[in-house]
Every structure is written in structure tokens, then in C-alpha cells.
Amino acid sequence: MDYETPLFFRVMGYANEADRDVVDMVSGNPDWGSPPGIAEGLHEYADLGGADFQYAPSEGLAELRVEIADRRDVDPEQVVVTNGGGEANYLAMARALEREAGDEFVLTDPVYPYYPGKTKMLGGTARYVAAEHDGSLDPAAVREQASDDTAAIVVNTPNNPTGAVYDEATMRELVAIAEEHDALLVSDEVYDHFDFSGEFTSALAFDSDHRVVTNAFSKSLAITGFRVGYAVFPPGLVDVAKTRHMLTNVATTRPGQYAVLHALRETDPDYYVANRELLESRVETFTDALDAAGADYTSPDGAFYVMARFEGYPGTLANVEKLIDEAGVAGMPGEAFGTSREDWFRFALVSPRVEEAAERLAVFFD
Ligand SMILES: Cc1ncc(COP(=O)(O)O)c(C=O)c1O
Questions:
Q1: CA–CA separation, 24 vs 324, rounded Å?
Q2: How far apart are CA 86 and CA 89, in angstroms?
Q3: CATH of 7-34+269-364, one of 3.90.1150.10, 3.40.980.10, 2.40.10.220, 3.40.50.2020
Q4: 86 lines ligand 1 (CB under 6 A)
Q5: How far does the centroid of ligand 1 lie from the alpha carbon of residue 86, in Å?
Q6: How far is CA 178 from CA 28, 71, 158, 234, in A?
Q7: What is the tens place of the pLDDT at every residue in 123-162?
Q8: Residue 224 three-state SS
Q9: Which residue in 1, 178, 262, 335 has its CB near the most CB atoms, within 10 A?
Q10: Given this structure, which CATH class describes domain 54-266?
């Protein structure tokens, strides 16, 4: 099997080697800092030593699983603490195939590239549903692609890369479609704290044995380097997922889990509000510049990315590199996210220099 290096690494490498100043709008690393509870938790942990420095329970620290379960209103037994959202998605997709109730994954286009990557790695087949122009998902279009061969429908809300937030009716329908075909809905909700629309609805809002919710603290607590996430499985599916997690990872990071637990307990809700508001103001600054540049774009309802298209300047890899060299702005080529938006660019708003990037783009496209 051949694994392609994600385009992300190639673009980052090119931007790092450029012999000029470049604003990085490629990575998904929050730049606004973690809440103090993270550092406090780590310091506290450092002094524990001994038994606390040994293996954590494979499925996660008991107190952290309870904390997550309370917040998500599920049984702690349903929670597996994972190596970030990435592993949570892997476990969910693997679990869907293990049910032997289909080997196809229904994915959206544009798509978060790791879903097709995992589909291929796990030996599944991908079927794509095109998102609407505004990034929303028409459940009728999903229904057309779903069949009894479907292992899982994999969605992400708020969405990377489109910024769409699926409303309650859409989520309800997605769960219903999964049930109709004895498949799973895998709902990746890593950007749930970055909903500007107020429309975000977790798949957990619908009681069903056919949905798995994945999440992580990577973005919400600005700790992508810590590797702490989780998956919530239906009770009948969780044990096998725990075994796969144990065989693959033994357990995820104990200091990371300890710090997350401390931060969850200590962090004021204002922390999340402030970050959301910061992002909303960046969206405004950036989309104003896109307007000035005459670009077509989707204004995100959530997450922290903007997709844009410039007349006569398609978002190819060559043009991404030219934008780095000549404008000093690094974005991602649309082809990284499927076929429907190959002409587009994706810009991540996780830089304090969004305004500068916006000005550079406006000048470049003038
Ligand atoms: C949609 C989506 N899911 C999952 C992840 C991975 O999250 P983690 O770093 O917690 O593995 C990302 C990271 O960018 C993401 O955009």
C-alpha cells in the first residue's frame, strides 16, 4: 500500500524554506495560548512522580472519563480517551468496518484529508457527497450515496475546511440514514467550541446505537502537541474499540490527560468565548480583504478556516507556491480537500498576522 505524504507537509516545507517573510495560514495550530489550568496541571503532575508516572489505564484516566461523560451526558464506560481526535477517528472508522455491515465510507467533498487517508489505510472504499456552495450538507444527497454497503458516514461539524456548521435537522437526518442502513454516523466535533452560528448540534443529541462522536482538546484548549482526545461509542461497540486502542497505543499520555482534567475543572467559560470572538473578528478582517480582492469565498459559521477562490488564479499547488514567494502568504491548495474545490485555496486563521496577510493578498490581487 502506498501512503502519500499529506500535501500539508509539502506546503509547510516550502513556506519554511522561502527566503522571505511568510504568514503561515496553513497549520491548524491555535496561536492564542492555553488556559492557565494546563500549565498548572502539568506543574502539579511533575511533582507527583512514582505510581503517577506509570501507565495510565488504557481507556483513559478514570476521573477524566467521568469528567468528559458528565459534560457529554453519557456513561463513562462509553468514553475512550485517545491520542487526539486523529486516533478517535481511526478507532471509530475501524470499528465501523469491524461490524462487517459494509465496507464503504460516505465522505463529503470538500473533505478533511485524513478521512480518505484512513479509509485507504483501513482497506475501505470512499464514496463522496458534494457539499453545497455554502458548505452545508444536503441529507438527501447523503441518502443517495448511502446503501447497505455503507460502514459509516463520516462528517465534521463545525467543518474543516468549509466552516459549515450542520444544523439540528441535518444531524438528525444523518443519524437516521445511518440507522436505515445499519451503518454508523461518525461525527467529528473537534471544533465544537468554535461555533459562531449558535446552530451547532452534536450527534450525541440523538439517542442512537448508530453514532460515534469524536472530539479532542487539541483545538479547544490550544494543545495540539499534547495528544488528548476521545471517542464516545454506543455501549455495544465500545469494548472492541478499547481493545484496538490498547493494542495500538497501550494508553495515551498520562501527563497530558492530567493537565486536561485540571484545565477542564479550572477554566472559566470566558476563555472559550474570548477565543471565539477573536476568531470572529479575524474572519471579518480576512473576508473584508477577500472582498477587496474580488474573491469568491465562504464565510465560515465555525472552525477556523476560510476557503476562497480568485478569478484567473486557481488554487493549484504551483499557485500556492507562487503566493508564498510573491505575496508572503501560505495557504493550502484546494486539491488537498477533494475534487470539488480544486480551484480554491484554504486559509487557516490561526495567526496573529491575519490582518497583514489580508493586506498582502489585497495588494497581490489588485
Ligand atoms: C476535522 C479534524 N479532525 C481531527 C483533527 C485532528 O485532531 P487532533 O490533533 O486532536 O488529532 C483535525 C486537526 O486539524 C481536524 O481538523
A1: 9
A2: 5
A3: 3.90.1150.10
A4: yes
A5: 6
A6: 30, 25, 20, 13
A7: 999 999 999 999 999 999 999 999 999 999 999 999 999 9
A8: coil
A9: 178
A10: alpha beta
